[in-house]
Design brief:
Length: about 500
């Protein structure tokens, strides 16, 4: 039995894990990893980041991700870079394993279940409407880990073992509180959708609303007037506010609900009661969370709630959408034909691979621990990490992540040095941690007109903030003590 399970389940999931990893690529230090990887490195070596560490430490107070990663590194003695890569592979494996198990609750034919898994593996980097999320990120993200735990919890509920789901959902909350909360919300909808009769659900929903209202009463801070610096940071993130969504982003939010309504009706007609109830749970979860999002994000007085990003409830729905889309394609179109399977796999994986190559035009598709940096920015970060003091305090263009050739990689995470606040990624942290807004605005404002800076401007930053190193365009402005350069960038020490 163990050998049969190895060949029929574990090895195929491992194969699709490698396919999914190949399609999505691997990019440590990209976007949000500027927070998470920096936090892990700071925990491993407290001498790092003596300046401005609040821009990643305060957000990480709500997550156990960095602590868990550090414990793994210390127990196994596997370097952080390798641990994160292995963690990404293992997390993808868990996501796909859970998807296969979930599909097995609804479909008897193996090829139907594997088509669902294949679709999820291909669509891991599918954008989730206007939320600025993917189903899974191209680096080890707490949200990836939380997604795996949530899917495993859903599988346990479908298996009739609801109490097994509780520790998995708690673990999801420990990794990523917001995603964990969505996981609890969907699991509740699913659990009661499987109950008989319906009045049980209505009773539970009323009590849940009552508890929610009781909890909401004391949080008056949500209605405090935000300061101008916080609003300035919020304006850089259009996806936090529904008024900034485009029509096609709204289509991406509402169309999945319609599709699950169609799936529910189809399952009812075919006598697939469990599938019908699951689709109903997704539909009710989506409608409920959409109403919550509208209530939170529409009134101007509730603007502080935008930091909770309630529209990100869609990430779970998109995961199920990919899973059941693959299953339906296999059931009605593929029908076990090898040539149809070949077209299906090539189309799904080829389209997403092409999209990922376009997303990262200036770096390798796989930024593995043993590969050399492929663009001038990453080369500069690597030199800084190896050749500057751990307590070095850098200034660089506050919009450096959006510069041509940079591809949104984090200086803090990859150079492992302190930097003045930036105008790209740090804004997302400021929205979540409003007390950082004033200092963030002060530092970003001090770096305005960066491209016109002369020696006197750099000296002003040194006097005002203590900055002693800069990363500037090559050739560097006159008067700087430059220690390294490539054709695009110079690393210089301030006199």
């Amino acid at each position: 039995m163990k050998r049969k399970r190895l060949y029929t389940e574990i090895l195929p999931v491992l194969l699709f894990t490698l396919i999914g990893f190949f399609v999505m690529g691997y990019h440590p230090g990209y976007e949000d990893d500027g927070i998470y990887l920096s936090a892990v490195q700071s925990d491993m070596n407290p001498a790092l980041y003596p300046h401005d560490s609040d821009f990643f430490k305060l957000q990480m107070q709500a997550s156990a991700f960095d602590d868990a990663t550090v414990e793994f590194v210390r127990l196994t003695h596997i370097p952080v870079s390798w641990s994160e890569m292995l963690g990404q592979l293992f997390t993808i494996f868990l996501i796909l394993w859970a998807c296969h198990s979930i599909a097995g609750k609804f479909f008897e034919r193996a090829e139907v279940r594997w088509a669902g898994v294949a679709m999820v593996a291909a669509m891991l980097t599918l954008p989730v409407a206007g939320t600025a999320l993917y189903i899974a990120d191209q680096h080890l993200h707490p949200r990836n880990v939380a997604t795996a735990f949530i899917l495993m919890a859903v599988d346990r509920i479908l298996a009739g073992k609801r109490w097994h789901a509780v520790p998995l959902l708690v673990a999801a909350c420990a990794m990523h509180p917001i995603m964990g909360a969505f996981g609890f919300s969907f699991s509740f909808c699913l659990a009661v959708a499987l109950m008989d009769p319906v009045h049980v659900w209505l009773k539970d929903m009323r009590s849940a609303f009552a508890r929610g209202a009781a909890v909401a009463i004391p949080i008056g801070w949500l209605f405090e007037s935000p300061n101008p610096a916080w609003r300035k940071a919020l304006n850089t993130r259009h996806y936090f506010l529904l008024a900034g969504w485009h029509w096609y982003e709204w289509l991406g939010a509402l169309a999945p609900l319609f599709l699950f309504w169609l799936l529910m009706r189809l399952a009812e007609k075919r006598g697939q009661t469990l599938l019908s109830r699951f689709a109903f749970a997704v539909l009710i979860y989506g409608i409920f969370q959409q109403l919550v999002a509208l209530a939170m994000l529409t009134p101007p007085s509730m603007i502080r709630l935008s930091s909770l990003q309630p529209m990100r409830y869609l990430q779970i729905i998109y995961c199920f959408l990919a899973l059941f889309a693959g299953c339906m394609i296999a059931q009605f179109l593929l029908k076990g034909r090898v040539w149809r399977w070949a077209i299906f796999l090539l189309a799904a994986n080829g389209a997403m691979l092409t999209a990922q190559e376009a997303e990262f035009p200036n770096c390798r598709h796989f930024e593995m621990p043993w590969t050399k940096p492929a663009n001038p920015w990453l080369q500069a970060f690597a030199w800084i990490r190896k050749n500057t003091p751990e307590n070095a305090y850098f200034a660089l263009d506050p919009n450096y992540m959006a510069m041509p050739g940079e591809d949104y990689h984090s200086f803090r995470a990859l150079a492992e040095r302190s930097q003045l606040a930036d105008a790209n990624k740090d804004t997302a942290v400021v929205i979540l941690v409003p007390q950082l807004a004033v200092e963030w605005n002060r530092e970003v404002t001090a770096q305005s007109s960066w491209r016109d800076f002369k020696l006197a401007d750099f000296e002003r930053l040194k006097r005002e903030f203590g900055v002693n190193w800069v990363l500037v365009s090559h050739p560097a402005p006159a008067g700087l003590d430059c220690r390294w350069h490539n054709p695009s960038l110079s690393v210089c020490r301030l006199p």
